[in-house]
Design a protein that fits this description.
The protein has helices spanning 56-69, 74-84, 93-105, 125-133, 135-154, 158-175, 182-200, and strands spanning 12-13, 16-17, 24-26, 29-31, 109-115, 118-123. The protein is mostly helical.
Length: 203
């Protein structure tokens, strides 16, 4: 397996801000939908500018390396990746299990037994060779996860989340009324633009 690199109008409805679903905030930016398998964070980008952590090929290499350390089933692999990333990234079952199926089809892993309904996998000689062929890439991928874990440990997003939730509530209360008025909308937008500029200028 070879490694591959892979400001508009303001609209407010009668129930408040459009698209006001909960989002999390962390070192890598706004966390919308989970971007696990083909991923945040690298050269690839998602909607909103977030970077991907691992693309599909990179995820398979990470899973293969973890299986080489010890036979694991899918849930254990999800946990292991999350631990390596310090909780800052976690692939979903919807991307991990297809990746395992592909690794098995490629002859890189084989079933190693079952624990209840969960099937563990062990690496094959072909899988070991693939890891050896991609040693530098694998090391870089795990370094990326370690860097993300370090960033998670140093970044306390709780105050930012609290402030953003407060802002969201204030905007709902102020602009979620019937016809708040064009002047009020532009006034609020100007305040938000000023705050964004001040944050951008922080050293």
């Amino acid at each position: 397996m070879r490694h591959r690199e892979g400001g508009g109008p303001h609209r407010f409805g009668r129930h408040g801000l459009r698209g006001s679903r909960h989002e999390d905030f962390g070192p890598e930016g706004w966390a919308g939908e989970e971007e696990a398998g083909e991923s945040p964070h690298h050269h690839h980008h998602h909607r909103g500018g977030r970077r991907r952590v691992l693309d599909s090929t990179e995820l398979r290499l990470v899973l293969l390396k973890l299986i080489a350390e010890a036979p694991r089933h899918g849930y254990e692999l999800i946990q292991a990746v999350g631990e390596r990333a310090g909780g800052g990234y976690g692939p979903s079952p919807g991307v991990v299990y297809p990746a395992l199926a592909m690794l098995e089809d490629m002859g890189f892993i084989v079933p190693a037994g079952e624990t209840g309904p969960r099937k563990a996998f062990a690496i094959t000689e072909a899988g070991e060779k693939d890891l050896a062929d991609n040693k530098a890439v694998v090391e870089a991928l795990f370094a990326r996860l370690a860097a993300l874990a370090d960033m998670q440990a140093r970044f306390d997003a709780a105050p930012v989340r609290r402030a953003m939730e407060n802002l969201r509530n204030v905007l709902r209360a102020t602009l979620g009324r019937e016809a708040p008025g064009k002047a009020r909308v532009h006034e609020v937008a100007a305040i938000l633009d000023t705050a964004a500029q001040q944050i951008e200028r922080l050293p």
